[in-house]
Design a protein that fits this description.
326 residues, alpha/beta, seven-stranded parallel sheet, two-stranded parallel sheet, 11 helices
Length: 326
């Protein structure tokens, strides 16, 4: 199978490219390197069956060309990270909605199977736990730029399902919960690589808000395996699936785990949201997925422990620091 990955030089996309090549598939990566990096895929460049193009998923002629050359598409290209979303809401909305429309339009021309990566953010301010795929969505006010990302990704889902219903495009939607692991950077607010870097350098580990907000962190290798199961299964088309780990931990608890496993003397410091992101920022107290549908349809569940995830991210940060010192 030849698979096109938009955003393929990013954190998740590069791991997916790696795993596809390992199982014998061919890979085409499209990335504009706005948040992705060549360093994520440079070890793949000379591998048989791998090719990449530097360009945007907003470039319709280019996307049409690459979709035509592939058997299926995994659309990962999107605005990522809380800080980027808050600081650049126009970029967030345009990147997410327009790029998805371009990809779906290209897929419709040849009926190409397409997996759209969505996000747990679409559940917004919902309080019913765990979140199930058919639950109502509860987004915040339009005056809060925090919700622009969630709204744009929800629109991506509706657009994909509309293309499936009206134009018979075989689409699959994966709502990714917090995915972490090697190659993830903290530049745009990703919490675990930031905690790991701070713990290893002896800086204060900065926890935003009260630290009581809870998330479920899954290893990127598990996330990629889940996406591949969805892509390969004949029973996933036209459906939405939660993709994530079920193990819940508070952000303060995560900071404490990172500190302990790093053997760090760093102090854990609480930073008010207003200081981190500006006045009016809203966050969700919990975000826990119901993954029974994923398990039932594909037979897949996340396996990597949170302790192993933290160790992997710490090791990745040590490697980065060693490279910077050379």
């Amino acid at each position: 199978m030849r698979v096109l990955i938009t955003g393929g030089a990013g954190f998740i996309g590069s791991h997916m490219a790696e795993q596809l090549l390992a199982r014998g598939d061919e890979v085409i990566v499209l990335d504009d390197l706005s948040t992705g990096s060549m360093s994520n895929i440079e070890h793949l460049v000379d591998r048989p069956g791998f090719m990449y193009r530097i360009g945007s998923a907003l470039d319709s002629p280019l996307v049409v060309e690459l979709v035509d050359r592939a058997d299926c598409t995994v659309h990962l290209a999107a605005a990522v990270g809380v800080r980027l979303i808050v600081e650049r809401p126009v970029h967030t909305i345009e990147t997410n909605v327009k790029a998805t429309e371009v990809v779906l339009d290209a897929a419709a021309r040849k009926g190409r199977r397409t997996l759209i990566a969505s996000t747990s953010e679409v559940y917004g301010k919902g309080t019913k736990m765990p979140f199930a795929e058919d639950d109502d969505l509860n987004l915040g006010a339009t005056t809060r730029s925090r919700w622009a990302y969630a709204c744009s990704k929800a629109l991506d889902e509706w657009l994909a399902l509309a293309y499936h219903a009206e134009k018979r495009v075989p689409v699959i939607i994966a709502r990714l919960f917090n995915t972490v692991g090697p190659r993830q950077v903290g530049r745009y607010g990703m919490v675990l690589p930031n905690f790991a870097r701070q713990a290893l350098t002896g800086e204060p580990i900065t926890v935003y808000g009260t630290g009581e907000q809870a998330r479920c962190f899954g290893h990127v290798n598990d996330s990629v395996q889940a996406l591949l199961h969805l892509l390969d299964s004949p029973d996933t088309v036209g459906q939405v699936f939660n993709v994530g780990s079920e193990r819940e931990i508070s952000i303060r608890g995560l900071a404490e785990m990172v500190k302990e496993r790093a053997g760090s003397a760093s102090e854990i410091v609480l930073v008010p949201y207003a200081e981190a992101y500006g006045a009016g920022f809203e966050d969700m107290p919990r975000r826990v997925p119901d993954v029974e549908k994923l398990a039932r349809v594909t037979g897949f569940r996340y396996e990597t422990t949170l302790e192993q995830i933290v160790d992997d991210v710490l090791e990745d940060q040590r490697t980065r620091r060693s490279g910077e010192a050379q």
